[in-house]
Every structure is written in C-alpha cells, then in structure tokens.
Amino acid sequence: MIGEKVKSELVRIFGKDGFRDSDEDRIAYSYDGTPVRSVLPDAIVTPSSVEQISKLMILANENKFAVVPRGSGSGLSGGSIPTENSVVLLMNKWTNVIEFDKNNLTAWVEPGVVTGKFQSLVESQGLFYPPDPGSAQICTLGGNVAENSGGLRGLKYGVTKNYVLGLEVVLPNGDVMRVGGKNMKDVAGYNLKDVMIGSEGTLGIFTKILLKLIPLPKTGRTLLAFYDSIAGAAATVSEITAARIVPAMLEFLDNPTIRAVEDFAKLGLDRNAGAVLLAEVDGAKPVVEEDLAAIEMICKKSRATTLHVARDQSEGMKLKAARRSALAALARISPTTILEDATVPRSELTTMVYFINLTAAKHNVQIGTFGHAGDGNLHPTGLTDERNEAEMKRIEEAFDDIFRKAVELGGTITGEHGIGLSKKKFLEELYNTPFVSMMKKTKEMLDPNFVLNPGKVVSVAPRCEGALPRSREQIDRVLSKMDNPAEAYF
Q: Is residue 175 predicted with pLDDT exceeding 90?
C-alpha cells in the first residue's frame, strides 16, 4: 500500500476532485480488456496539467510506488492493469483537439481523444486519419500510440506510428520532453519519437500528440466473397498481392466466426461457407473501378462460391459490419472471450489458420478466427469460461502452441495488440537475446526505480548494490541493509 502520507500528498497535487481511493473506484480500474486478470490499485488520480503529472512521477520515485497510465482501458494485452502498490493515472479526460492545421495537414491532440470521434471530425473537413482499430468508438489516441495500434485499414495505410509526427512526453523521472514536429524531414539525433511509440506506457506518459492527416479518398467500393474452404480465401489474398493491388481492407472470417456473426447480426451470410473475404478499395473513381473488377476476377478464379458487391456506401457499411461485429458475435457464445493476435507472412496464412484449427481440436477447446488477411494478422479467439480451470489451462496451452507456430513460420506474437503482461513470457522465450536485452537496458536507463508501469513488456529486476545477488548469503546481506526488505520484491 502507498500509505496515508503519500495519499495526502496526492490530494495536495491533484485536489480532492482529482483523487479517488474508494473500493468502487479501485475495482473499476483494476482491469482492462484482457480477460481474467485484475489487481486493485491503491488510488486513481486524474490530472488537469502536465505539471501535476511531472510532480506525480517525482513523488513516485521518492516513495517507490508504481504509476500505471490508463486511457479507456480497452487494451487486450494487460498493459493498463495495475500492479501492487500502484496509482492509476487516468488520462481519458484529456479530450481536446488542440490545433487543427489544414495548411500542414496536421493536428495536435490530447491523449484522451476517442479515435472514432477524431476520425469523424477529420473527415468532416475533407481529410483522413486512417488508423482504424476495431475498438475505434471507445479507444483513445493516447492508447493507440502507446500500443502502436493497427486496424482494418493497415494493409494500405499502415499503423499508428505512420501518422505520429511529434509527442510531448512526461518521462519516468518527471522531466517533460517534446520530440518531432511538423517538418516532413527531420533527422536530428536519435529517433526517440519511435522509441516512445509502442512502448505501452513503460517509458513515458503522452500529454500531447501531433498527428499527420491525408486527403480523404474520393470514393470506395466494398466486396464480400464466400468460399468453401480457407484455402480458397488465402489463394485470393495471394493473387491480389501478386496483381499489385493494395486494397484499403482485406479481411477474413472462418466458419465458426461466420456462424456467430450471422446469429448475432442477421446479415444474410452463408452459414455453410468455409470462409469469407471482405475487400474494400478506395481512391480515385477510375482506379477504384479498375481494382474492383480485377479483384472480382481473382475471386472467381479462386473459386469463390458467391460474390456480393455493395451498390453504395450504405450497403458497403452493412457488409463491413460482418467483420466489425466479429468479436461481439463470438463473445456471446461463452462467458469468457480471449482475443489473441498472431501475425505471419501472407504466404503462410493458410498454414497458420489450419494449424489454429488443428490446435483447437488437439486441446479440445473452441477457437474462432478472423483478422486482417491482407497483412497476415490473425485474431484467433478462444471461447471459454474462466470458472472452468481445466478448460482455461487447455486454452492457454493451445495459445502457447499458436504463438510458437507463428514465430516458427517467420511471424510474430503480436501485430497490433502489444505485449503487456499476457505475452511477456513469449517475447523473452522466442526472440533473440540482444533484442530483449536492448529493451531491458532502455527501461533501466529511463526508469531506474521501475515506477512507470513496471512488469509490462519485459521483466527487469531492481538493482541491489549495483549487481544482482547470486547466493542466499548475498541476498541476506542485501536485505539486512534495507529499511524495508519487502522493497526488494517490488
């Protein structure tokens, strides 16, 4: 626990309105979108200024408690789950679009701006912010930057890091750093901006974000193609890539997911289809029509059983609802839904999906798969019940196999959800030592007291007299010199 003295200081810094420690509040902020993990924080603070955040970090270093930044809490890797002896720093009230610069096609925003609302604002001005995570209507831009979020439009437009030009960041020691800016070219010094992007709240707290905007595509067309097998859908993806066509979206649902979506949304999907592929092309009208015709031909060549092209934008939105409702539909099947995130080279898509199905059968668990077929990013989704310990163990073993297979195929354990708590062991087990070592050294350098979101992404042991003790006698000697030996295990 952080103690009454620290709580009094937090009230002094944030005011009574900016400090909460009731049981109800502590429970409400004890978990995120990751299932079956929760830890009660000691308090929740809501800052109103950068200065307050800086003072919080200085206080945390002085008193050795943890600070866990949080936006909407929609993360899927445990990145904003509190630790023991921690304070949650709630940033979802920072909702201002500070500057909208049409001349430079940029916008300065605060981290609590909801992604979907920002997209709507930008599009009302004839511009476009492409990153499109599935939780866009609730997640925040600060969380997107922290996780380097992707989304449905990642194939053509990239992920969040491709649209971040600058940041204002409070560092773990309380210093305030600004990196980047509106210059389209800037190679002065190390690229610290990109070090911060995707750092999952472990290296700094974003207080301002400078985003790049692009012209809004003039038009778009959407197509839905059904197949008897996963292989047919995967072959279509390969053929589209070989034809040098880059759709805005190229999404995939397997049969269990199709059935769940149809039961949920009543969209008229073919429940017996082995797979469905959603494609959307956008841009200038002649290019869109040419690309759409080419994709239709490829779908037929790959033995699509049914093709449906949206007549207009409204029908296109309905077709895209099949993909956007996948998680909600699957979540209705069982009490606990575990949405995971594994990415492989596009050429390995069929192999990976078949492996997921075989693995589900091997462990006697239910897994529905959907995702971003165009960039090889799959979302195998476990349907289980956290109260069933035996089944939970089996599904964890299934995902262990899936992540190892993804890496074996030249892929990665996460394409967009991040490492957080849930995948930390895989990062340290499956990736080369210098890569992990460099991350640990970066964390140690910027946060030597491990007060900012500790325990996430990589495990870093606190320093004890310069070197880690290696024997029982050394450990006893170190502990005997500490005022509070429990701090050795923080």
A: yes
Residue 77 lies in a domain: yes
Written as six digits, the tokens of 76 are 């899927």
Which spans in 282-388 are helix H? 285-301, 313-324, 326-331, 349-363
- Cα–Cα distance list, 245 to 42, 281, 292 (Å): 52, 9, 9
Q: What is the pLDDT of residue 484?
A: 52
- Asked if 234 and 241 touch (Cβ cutoff 8 Å), the reply is no
Residue 59's CATH number: 3.30.43.10
Beta strands in 136-284 (DSSP E): 164-170, 176-180, 205-212, 214-215, 219-227, 249-254, 275-283
Long-range CB pairs of 268-274, under 8 A, 24+ apart, other chains included: 269/226, 269/322, 270/226, 270/305, 270/306, 273/226, 273/227, 273/228, 273/305, 273/306, 274/227, 274/228, 274/229, 274/230, 274/232, 274/233
Is the whole-model pTM more than 0.85?
A: yes
In angstroms, rounded to a whole number, what is the distance separating the alpha carbons of residues 413 and 466? Answer: 33
pLDDT at residue 486 above 60? Answer: no
Same domain, 59 and 109: no
Instruction: Report the C-alpha dihedral over residues 447, 448, 454, 456, rounded to 10 degrees.
Output: 70
> Which of 451, 435, 152, 450 has its CA nearest to residue 319?
152
Range of the domain at 31: 4-90
264 close to 258: Cβ distance less than 8 angstroms: no
Please give the tally of structural domains in the chain.
4
Q: β-pairing, 66-70 with 86-90?
A: parallel
pLDDT in the model for residue 483: 53
